[in-house]
Amino acid sequence: MRKLAFSLVLFFFVTPSLLRSQTPPQAWKAIPEILPERFGNWSKGTCASLPERVALMAETGTQGWTSCQYSMGGQTIRISVQKFRDPTGAYEFYTAGLHPGMMPSLVGNNAALEQDRLWMLTGNLVLSVESQKLASEADLREFVKSLDGHADKTPLPEIRSFLPSNGLIQGTQRYSLGPEGYVSAARSLDRPAYAALSSGLSLGPKSAADAEMMMGSYENGKGGQEVLLLVLYPTPQLAEQQLHHLQPLLASKPEFAGTTVERDASLLSLVLSPSSSEMAKRLRQAIKYDTAITWNEPSQTLTDPPWLLVLKTIFYAAGIFCGIAAVAGVLFGIFRLLVKRLFPGKVFDRSNSVELLQLGLNSKEINPNDFY
Hints:
This protein is of the alpha+beta class. The chain has helices spanning about 1-10, 85-95, 135-145, 180-190, 235-250, 275-285, 305-340; strands at about 40, 40-50, 60-70, 75-85, 105, 110-115, 115-120, 125-130, 175, 210-220, 225-230, 260-265, 265-270.
């Protein structure tokens, strides 16, 4: 029973600030159906519930949890799974549970090992496996694969790829889509004074700008660490507004000395209390963020036809036009002859309507009737 309680506390208290409720405690929905009955040679046993006094902050969008025991022979492991509204909220919770010293695991792309515990993200699910050394890598892969039907495979936030990889201290990556996650990240990366910027960054869907942030620590080669903060806004206009809001805020407090904010399109970058301006500049230059301007306009798939086809069309059109003209001329000639025969001198060739201009080059007067 003590082992069970310890496993639950370890899973749900990975980051104290993430598990601090701002509202009255409320029970989480149990979702035992997510975990399979068997994987490999492991069989599902009893599932535990979490006391009501613990609640996850609302900004990660938790939807339910379950924690079950699996056994094989005399060996036992415990697997806890927490489900979130989408992979974005799950990624925030996952990064909050990382810390330096964790080793990457081959079980999945977003998986880390801490002694005998596996901490992993798959879609909108966050997993914790206690005593993971007892299970083979193949068994754990089979277990993760069994969750595919329950996991939302929507892509993770794009901002996570903007952090420079050179010099990054693995386990210090922090993502947040709201102010509470940012405050927790600032404190965990030894920059507690910057928690005061949470309102100025306009993080989360409840704010005016709906921004998201990513943080990470870097070795500076002097025995210390630099902390890079990236904040991504929906549009460059919103980023520019927040830039003008943050600049006087940073300049007004002595604890923010040396910290500047710069904008690149929709991205704001801050190096929190850098050891030098050169180090801050170097980190900013390594940010993997590329901007692209697109012009939305109506598209069409028409292309210029081959020149042989154009010539062929011209000759065909000219031939058709000449044929129509010839037929029209013949028909008019027949019509004229018929009218002249039926109504001689009444429609065509009326002498009283014919006028001749004479130059008078000779003395003989021209009589129009001579022409009919």
